[in-house]
Design a protein that fits this description.
This protein has 196 residues and is mainly α. It has one domain: Butyryl-CoA Dehydrogenase, subunit A, domain 3. It contains 8 helices and no strands. Helix 6 runs parallel beside helix 8 and helix 7 runs antiparallel to helix 8. The longest helix has 31 residues. The N terminus is likely disordered. The protein binds 2-acetamido-2-deoxy-beta-D-glucopyranose (3 copies). One 2-acetamido-2-deoxy-beta-D-glucopyranose (NAG) binds next to helix 2. GO terms for molecular function: enzyme inhibitor activity. Pfam families: PMEI.
Length: 196
């Protein structure tokens, strides 16, 4: 019995592993490529956003909006993953504790990315002080979402949590953090352009 409990979730873990859909890249993505240059993970940025080239066109605002949506969707997957892990049998008390804490962090992060996504979408027409206010909200929330990811992994610093579970959480959280870091870079680029 115990064995099948372990096997089924691990198939699910594997299903979530892949970073981004490797779809064919449309020809005209020059704007996306040059914008992604400002991010820490440009390949991930290009592969995840070139799917939305027709929406993005040459708009730094749409670029940031879509990057946040991609980050939101990826964070939702991580939330599902953490939820599944809490159902796992045969975990030590330390592992259970680290998983429960990390699930809370991922949920906080999801909430912050969601709020940022909504705020960013409504930002199109705002100007002056109002724009700066909304932008600083988004920048604060996304930075906090990245901190949540780090805090999640801190919970696994105890030696007693070493193993496959920790590695699978790390893979999830690292992937989420890469998408979110890219979104933050694109938000910052957009904000910097608007201030001129
Ligand atoms: C990316 O930046 C590097 C140096 O900062 C530059 O040489 C390269 O041409 C840029 N690539 C694109 C696609 O803008
Ligand atoms: C995010 O997920 C929603 C719902 O599954 C989907 O409709 C949307 O296309 C996704 N957006 C991106 C940018 O991946
Ligand atoms: C995002 O926020 C909206 C408005 O508060 C809410 O309706 C929606 O369920 C939230 N989505 C997620 C993924 O948390």
């Amino acid at each position: 019995m115990t064995r099948s409990y372990y096997l089924v979730p691990f198939f699910l873990l594997l299903a979530f592993y892949s970073e981004a859909a490797s779809s064919p890249i449309p020809a005209n993505i020059g704007f996306i490529k040059s914008s992604c240059n400002a991010t820490a993970y440009p390949d991930l940025c290009i592969s995840s956003l070139s799917l939305y080239a027709t929406t993005i066109q040459n708009s730094p605002h749409q670029m940031a909006v879509m990057a946040l949506e991609v980050s939101l969707n990826r964070t939702k997957l991580a939330q599902t993953f953490m939820h599944l892990l809490t159902k796992f049998k045969g975990l030590t008390a330390k592992q259970q504790e680290a998983i429960a804490d990390c699930k809370d962090e991922v949920e906080d992060s999801l909430d912050r990315v969601n709020r940022s996504s909504i705020e960013m979408k409504s930002l199109g027409q705002a100007g002056g002080q109002e724009f700066i206010w909304h932008m600083s909200n988004v920048e604060t929330w996304i930075s906090a979402a990245l901190t949540d990811d780090t805090t999640c992994m801190d919970g696994f610093s105890d030696l007693a949590t070493e193993g496959k579970i920790k590695e699978s959480v790390r893979a999830q959280i690292t992937s989420v953090a890469h998408y979110t870091s890219n979104a933050l870079a694109l938000i910052n680029s957009f904000a910097a352009m608007q201030k001129h």
